[in-house]
Amino acid sequence: xxxxxxxxxDLTVRFGGLTALSGVTFAVEHGAVHGLIGPNGAGxxxxxxxxxxxxxxxxxxxxxAGAPLDGLPTYMRTAxxxxxxxxxxxxxxxxxxxxxxxxxxxxxxxxxxRDILLRLPAFRAQETRAVARAREIxxxxxxAHQAERPGGDLSYGEQRRLEIARALASEPxxxxxxxxxxxxxxxxxxxLIDLIGRLRARGLTLLLVEHDxxxxxxxxxxxxxxxxxxxxxxxxxxxxxxxxxxxxxxLGSKSVRRPGAGA
Length: 263
What we know:
By secondary structure, the protein is α/β, with parallel strands linked by helices. Helix content is 38%, strand content 24%. Strands 6-7-8-3-9-10 form a six-stranded mixed sheet, with helices on both faces. It has a four-stranded antiparallel sheet with strand order 2-1-4-5, with helices on one face.
């Protein structure tokens, strides 16, 4: 646990008589790409929502860099260094790509109302820095040429990368990606794999939920597998792909019936 950036311990959540997660424990190490997988209904999205503060656990704990996150609202978790994307893309469709990224940096700016109202030099200087930083991030994700286009006019793959860019603007320690490859064509997935590889090379820690097993096996250093709200396996991609419990959980899914097929 000494290397853990994110520590999830005995996480349990109940909705009425339904137990959505039951005693889930796992850790994400600094600089790793960690996968959270499982069949439909396994509890992956519930776990993501609990970690990011969109819902509350019944029991258990979540800590980032050794500091408890329990009870903190989403914006405070973002301020502590946690950022996430969503399975269904969320963006300001009528705002430019540049403005979308700048919106993601609002927790890292410190304008005073008077400075903003009167557009004093302190505000203008900070705005200039924010624009430069947003352009730098857009360039990193391959969208520099789309900076002035409305987010809603971008292609699907570009919108996915824009959502990641906006999350990066909050300067996260941990970036959580919810189904990042969902709906992408093969070319877009190759671009995304390259982007995640470059994020890892910069030292960013990532936790991702993804159904595409080729994508998961190619990118992840370690994988946690959930089924019916409980952890059933954990380990390296090689270990997980050959685990009989995992194969049984995915029985009927062509991508995992023959673990690693196509990988």
